[in-house]
């Protein structure tokens, strides 16, 4: 079998930029390595290879949206999710007898699509179903919204490949976006501290939603004050072992204003600002994002675009202008590692790096098991070649706290 490999340049192409006549798989990958890349054959510089699990999952999602029966639609969606969450590429799950190892959630119909992708890089079965469905235009739109998303297996491969210059897991000292039972997350503060310690973190910020985001159970000022006291008590108990940072995820309104006052913001050690509305609009929202970045005490622009895979593109803005403003105001831009967000992705992060930005790499976890999502952010940072010193999560606790305190001075 051929083993096509692609350069960084080719691998970062968008559907929209593809040459006419190019055959593209249902995410941004046009070619699939039929076998795992042979390490001995790799070129000296790290490359991003076509992500076979993302390609197969993309076809399964296409097939889901081509169904008229709801159970079948959910079945293919479940199969796609299972493939995206695999730790290994599908190519390594083929037995010598050309059987696919059993993957919970993946039935015979989905297996057939997977084999087609492994053999040819495409799925004639899915393509035929899409053409017959009468929904080809909507499915093509969704495909375009899966650009630059990594499967879990590709994240793992990138973390293992020593030739990337970016941060390693051991460089990463703590996560700066997560949610607890105080807003829309599940875990208690103690559960978070223990889970972070188990991951070897020195510190982590709990960043529940502010009161403007009612749908996410945002904290009232009184609840925020009570949470800060609970965090202070926790820090006494974990003294010398772990430092919990009291943070908040403020919502950026349509006008760029935050849903908490300057006085309320001053009560937190870390203020993230993030957009949660107007994420499907074609109009330019540069002014909104510039206003948010210029807001005193904001330290991180979180999931800057607000994109969701296969669903929405997020905020449209002159991002290079936003990145320059972030540099000017000392605001870090986030790589949100939630697999459905991956926001910023590696291509945008490379632009932010060139602009001189600092970065925050976060899980956006709502359960302790989701803390692993920080690894998705690490993979994007490695693809973008971000030096650990530009990533605030990789700083020592004293250096991080000093940087956070400087925000309250501006
Ligand atoms: Zn958010």
- Spatial extent as radius of gyration: 22 Å
**Bound molecule types:** zinc ion
Side by side, the strands of the main sheet go 1-2-3-4-5-6
Number of helices: 15
Number of strands: 6
* Helix percent band: 25-40%
| C-alpha termini separation | 59 Å
- The ordered string of helix (H) and strand (E) elements is HHHHHHHHEHEHEHEHEHEHH
Mean pLDDT: 88
> Which structural class fits the helix and strand makeup?
alpha/beta
Rough outline = globular
Strand content: 5-15%
User: pLDDT below 50 for ≥5 consecutive residues: which ranges?
Assistant: 1-48
What characterizes the major β-sheet? 6 strands, parallel
Please outline the helices and strands.
Elements: H1 8-11, H2 52-65, H3 70-85, H4 108-120, H5 124-133, H6 136-144, H7 152-160, H8 189-198, E1 203-209, H9 221-237, E2 243-252, H10 262-266, E3 270-275, H11 286-294, E4 298-301, H12 319-329, E5 332-336, H13 346-355, E6 359-362, H14 374-384, H15 397-407
Parallel strand pairs: 1-2, 2-3, 3-4, 4-5, 5-6
Helix pairs in contact: 2-3, 2-4, 2-5, 7-14, 11-12, 12-13, 13-14
The structure holds zinc ion.
Written overview of the protein:
With 410 residues, the chain is α/β, with parallel strands linked by helices. Helices cover 39% and strands 9% of the residues. The chain has helices at residues 8-11, 52-65, 70-85, 108-120, 124-133, 136-144, 152-160, 189-198, 221-237, 262-266, 286-294, 319-329, 346-355, 374-384, 397-407; strands at residues 203-209, 243-252, 270-275, 298-301, 332-336, 359-362. The protein has a six-stranded parallel sheet. The N and C termini lie far apart (59 Å). The chain binds zinc ion. The site of zinc ion has 5 residues, from loops. Zinc ion is lined by residues 249, 274, 276, 302-303.
């Amino acid at each position: 079998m051929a083993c096509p490999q692609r350069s960084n340049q080719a691998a970062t192409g968008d559907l929209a930029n593809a040459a006419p006549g190019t055959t593209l798989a249902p995410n941004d990958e046009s070619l699939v390595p039929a076998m795992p890349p042979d390490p001995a054959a790799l070129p000296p510089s790290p490359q991003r290879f076509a992500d076979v699990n993302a390609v197969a999952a993309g076809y399964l999602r296409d097939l889901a949206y081509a169904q008229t029966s709801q159970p079948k639609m959910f079945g293919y969606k479940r199969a796609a999710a299972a493939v995206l969450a695999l730790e290994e590429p599908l190519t390594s799950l083929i037995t010598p007898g050309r059987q696919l190892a059993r993957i919970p959630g993946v039935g015979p119909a989905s297996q057939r699509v997977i084999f087609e992708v492994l053999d040819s890089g495409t799925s004639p079965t899915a393509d035929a179903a899409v053409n017959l469905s009468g929904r080809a235009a909507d499915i093509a739109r969704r495909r375009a919204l899966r650009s630059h998303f990594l499967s879990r297996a590709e994240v793992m491969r990138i973390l293992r490949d020593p030739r990337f210059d970016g941060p390693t897991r051991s460089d990463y000292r703590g996560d700066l976006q997560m949610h607890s039972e105080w807003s829309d997350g599940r875990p208690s503060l103690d559960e978070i501290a223990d889970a972070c310690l188990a991951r070897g973190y020195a510190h982590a910020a709990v960043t529940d939603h502010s009161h403007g985001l009612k749908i996410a159970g945002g904290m009232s000022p009184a609840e925020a004050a009570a949470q800060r006291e609970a965090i202070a008590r926790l820090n006494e108990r974990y003294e010398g072992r772990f430092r919990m940072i009291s943070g908040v995820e403020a919502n950026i309104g349509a006008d760029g204003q935050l849903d908490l006052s300057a006085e309320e913001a001053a009560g937190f050690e870390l203020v993230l600002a993030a957009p949660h509305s107007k994420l499907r609009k074609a109009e330019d929202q540069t002014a909104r994002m510039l206003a948010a970045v210029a807001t005193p005490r904001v330290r991180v622009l979180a999931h800057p675009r607000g994109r969701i895979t296969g669903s929405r593109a997020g905020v449209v803005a002159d991002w290079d202008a936003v990145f320059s403003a972030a540099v000017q105001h000392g605001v870090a831009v986030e790589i949100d590692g939630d697999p459905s967000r991956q926001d910023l992705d590696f291509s945008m992060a490379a632009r932010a790096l060139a602009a001189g930005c600092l970065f925050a790499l976060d899980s956006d976890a709502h359960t302790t098991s989701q803390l692993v999502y920080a690894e998705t952010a690490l993979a994007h940072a490695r693809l973008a070649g971000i030096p650990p010193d530009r990533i605030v999560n990789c700083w020592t606790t004293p250096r991080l706290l000093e940087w956070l305190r400087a925000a309250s001075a501006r």
